[in-house]
């Protein structure tokens, strides 16, 4: 990622790299970044995720805005676990 920094800046794009898949932290940050861009009047041209995916807005109809693709207990457990 550090080696790509100059190219990314010159291209005027944002690249988020592996910021955690368990329990979907990468998705949460992606949504946060997309919302930030939209609030600033920007436009998302492309979103590529090489692991998993974001649920469609009409499918994120729960308080977490999250769709469980595996054990929901595992997701909640990961949220409260310490990193070792």
UniProtKB/TrEMBL annotation:
Coiled-coil annotated spans: none
Saccharopine dehydrogenase-like C-terminal domain ranges (all copies): 20-80
Presence of the UniProt keyword Transcription regulation in the record: no
A molecular function GO annotation: saccharopine dehydrogenase activity
Entry GO terms, CC: cytoplasm
Annotated transmembrane regions: none
GO biological process entries: lysine biosynthetic process via aminoadipic acid
Protein name: Saccharopine dehydrogenase (NADP+, L-glutamate-forming)
Gene label: LYS9
